[in-house]
Amino acid sequence: MYVARLQLHDFRSYAEVDVALEPGASAFLGRNGQGKTNLVEAVDYLSRLASHRVATDAPLVRSGADRALVRAVVVREGREATLEVELNPGRSNRARVNRSPLPRPRDLLGLVRTVVFSPEDLTLVKGDPSERRRFLDDLLVLRTPRLAGVRSDYDRVLRQRNSLLRTAANARRGSSGETSALSTLEVWNAHLARTGAELLAERLALVEELRPYLGKAYETVARGASRDDAEIEYRPSFDLSPEVREAVSQQPSHHDPLVDALLEALAERRADELDRGVSLVGPHRDELLLSLGTPETRLPVKGYASHGESWSFALALRLASYDLLRADGDDPILILDDVFAELDSDRRAQLADLVSGAEQVLVTAAVAADVPESLSGVRYSVGGGEVSRDG
Q1: pLDDT score recorded for residue 146
Q2: Measured between alpha carbons, how far is 117 from 210 in angstroms, rounded to an integer?
Q3: Cα–Cα nearest to 203, from 158, 144, 256, 127
Q4: Is the distance from CB of 351 to CB of 343 less than 8 angstroms?
Q5: DSSP state for residue 267 in the 8-state scheme
Q6: Model confidence pLDDT, tens digit, residues 275-328
Q7: What sections of 102-146 are H helices per DSSP?
Q8: N or C: which end of the chain has fewer CB within 10 A?
Q9: Phi and psi dihedrals of 41, rounded to 5?
């Protein structure tokens, strides 16, 4: 799979741009602030319908415009398809394939797969648990696009339940109306347990699949490390017995044990939730624990790892994602967004050698010298709102 052509209209800094691309490595070169990252961000947006830089669509629309358009010609197994998404902040986005409208933008998911390496990756190891949950969920949707609907359903149920809990908490403080607010809580508990159990089961299975790839990747990018040094563990927001974990691992599609466990945990935390007016149990409160060292000396990456170890762990997570997607039978587009400036020469060479065999690699860099020789493919100069191919 690769992108053969990228067209942007009022996206970020570009009023109009049309870039022809090829398989293999392509590097976008130019000073900071000239729009290099905007190009690869657009490709990634087609994959995830989200940006790796901002949380909402509004910053993606050029100042003064009311909408933006991202269009790409994608080649997969020799067949071309034109994918496009229209960004309408404050309104519904629209998506098309070969000019035909899709019922929902998320129906575009799965048609392009990307794995992005960027300076923001440090938040995977140093940031809040929400960053690591998003990492897992993005990878889940890339592998199984229907899970975007599950995640959306869970978020909707969570918002409704939180609203109900806030109403009940306020009513309790005002000594009125609490009974009516709580009359539907059990219904929303059931909805939360049902959607949450499916999302939780998928995350648990993903972490187990990802673990061996992570160990191999960390051994490769961290000098002197072994594949047993890097460890990940999924920790739910409530106690999950080994028996339930074992039942889920044997039958991942059978969610009843997780539904029952979630309902039991909700019952146990009911008083706390009513006091605080917020949902305290569920996948939205879970954590992906990252640690380094031998089993006897293992410590959390966050707070204990050096800068170099943190970078290596973040890179290993992305490489593990890439390897897992390839094991599924697909070759995702690799995006290396300004990462070589953050690495020493040895790590640059190691990362470049690992990814140079990908079907398509898109690189951004301020200077050509930052791009390793093994990724010396097509070069583009970016500046003044224009993109031109060198040579």
Answers
A1: 94
A2: 17
A3: 144
A4: yes
A5: H
A6: 999 999 999 999 999 999 988 889 999 989 998 889 889 999 999 999 999 999
A7: 122-126, 129-143
A8: C
A9: -60, -35
Q: How many angstroms separate the Cα of 374 from the Cα of each of 204, 324, 351, 356, 362? A: 36, 23, 10, 6, 13
Structure tokens at 105: 């933008």
Dist. CA 352–CA 340, nearest whole Å: 9
What are 389's strand-pairing partners?
Answer: 380
CB 340 within 8 A of CB 348: yes
The identity of residue 103, as a single letter, is P
Residue type, 226: S
3-state secondary structure of 81: strand
In the chain the first and final C-alpha atoms are separated, in Å, by 25
> E strand or H helix at 336, and its extent?
strand 333-337
**Cα Rg of the chain (Å, integer):** 23
pLDDT, tens digit, 9 for 90 and up, residues 156-179: 999 999 999 998 888 776 655 555
The H or E element containing residue 9 is: strand 2-11
Beta bridge partners of 336: 117, 363
Closest by CA position to 332, among listed 142, 122, 177, 57: 142
DSSP 150-195: HHHHHHHHHHHHHHHHHHHHHHHHHTSSHHHHHTTHHHHHHHHHHH
β-pairing, 386-389 vs 79-87, is unpaired
Residue 110, token pair as written in the block:
């799965």
Which stretch of DSSP H or E encloses residue 20? strand 14-20
Distance between CA 158 and CA 151 in Å, rounded? 10
Q: Which two tokens stand for residue 313?
A: 């762990």
